[in-house]
């Protein structure tokens, strides 16, 4: 009885196992994630018209293709010394990476938002963070 077919099988199985272990041993690459969080302070925080215009502008921004996820918010009714509630509206959005965020910054919809809503604002505070998602 010949052992050659068995040896060939074992040899091929061993090579296949080595190839698989290399793939399994390779570290999982995490994807880059860019977070853009803006806090808007209206010049007239009591103006429902100004707030509505700002909210409409943010809803348009959410439709820019580079924006992967967004959230429009107002100060929550929470308490604590570290919690800031002096802003009018917040805009939180996520991008696949820094390049996508840069595309967003130059998008005509974003530029129009700055022209239309900028005059309504006393100031805006921007927090950008670059990290990883699992």
From TrEMBL:
Sequence ranges assigned to domain Stress-response A/B barrel in this UniProt record: 34-129
PROSITE patterns the UniProt entry points to: S_R_A_B_BARREL (PS51502)
Gene3D superfamilies noted in UniProt: 3.30.70.100
Xref: SMART domains: Dabb (SM00886)
Domain of life: Bacteria
Protein name according to UniProt: Stress-response A/B barrel domain-containing protein
């Amino acid at each position: 009885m010949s052992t050659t077919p068995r040896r060939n099988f074992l040899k091929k199985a061993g090579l296949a196992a080595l190839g698989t272990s290399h793939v399994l041993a390779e570290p999982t690459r995490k994807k880059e994630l860019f977070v853009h969080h803006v806090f808007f302070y209206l010049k007239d925080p009591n103006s429902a018209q100004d707030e509505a215009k700002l909210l409409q502008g943010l809803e348009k921004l959410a439709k820019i293709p580079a924006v992967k996820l967004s959230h429009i918010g107002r100060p929550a009714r929470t308490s604590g010394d570290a919690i800031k509630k002096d802003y009018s509206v917040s805009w939180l959005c996520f991008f696949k990476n820094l390049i996508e965020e840069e595309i967003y910054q130059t998008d005509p919809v974003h530029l129009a938002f700055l022209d239309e809503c900028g005059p309504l604002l006393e100031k805006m505070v921007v927090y950008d963070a670059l990290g990883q998602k699992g």
